[in-house]
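Researcher: I'm preparing a figure for a lab meeting and need a structural model of a single chain. I don't have an experimental structure, so a prediction will have to do for now. The sequence is pasted below. Please return the structure as tokens so I can convert it later.
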Amino acid sequence: MQRICVVGGSRYFGRLLVQRLQAAGHQVTVINRGSTRPPAGVEHLVVDRDDEAALVAALGTRAFDVVVDQVCYTPVQAAIAARAFGGRTRRYIMTSTIEVYDPATAALAPVPVSTPVPEETVDPATWLVSTDLPWHDEAYLEAHYAEGKRRAEAVFTQAAGFAFASVRSAHVLGGGAREFTGRLAHYVERIAQGKEITVHAEALPTVFIHHEELADLLLWAATATDFTGPINACSDGLLDVRDLSAVVAEQTGRQPVYRTVARGETASPFSLDRHYAMSNARAKRLGFTFSRTTDWLPGAVAEALATSAAPTV
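Model: Understood. Here is the structure written out token by token.
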């Protein structure tokens, strides 16, 4: 049994992680602002993580074997957490994102389109850290989501007083209504209703992960291994927007209607005009086994279709 703190953990794969940690016999503490209570038997600390004094007070004398941070989006939040949990945990894991590799948001070394992007493409040990930008402004944060994650990883890597690892998640799907981004529902509803899907002329493939698989990987990262640094988390197999639409079309009984967007125009989610599909080779070398996207995607589409009001034929 380990004592594990989950920061966030109120919805989707974060809540599933909390349930699996508890089921595995670990002593779990959840920290969030109180909008959602954790499962019975899980300690709940209601506090705003952005309020450092309140966070330290809420933690009291508690110490943890591992902290899993599900909701760190900025270097300011990372710096607060690094100070608050310094000396309280031996290991800290942050859930990060595939978006750190988006070449449209940073000057990154180019990776050939045929090569899945490895972790060293973004090295948090050398990434610039600056906390004096307007990270508290919601509009700024939304526009700089990828950079916020990169700099948060950098703060923990460069300044934290504990072992640090980050899990860079692919696009997460599955769970029907629990998939709160609505990106898969976008395809289900539009294809079922015969509405157009906007795509790039030469849409490039990307990578995905099922929400249960991501919860399993985070459970493994927290309890079964001690790696440090970033790992990429994605199921095996690349899919582009037309591949995804074809799986939806098979279950809705309607063929997708595509409209090609002009250069620079926004397209539907997962239609990409730049390459940053991740490699999961490091996680495999460390011992994690991934599923294939094509094995679980039909079930995720069926869940989305079951929660949608869109008609089918």
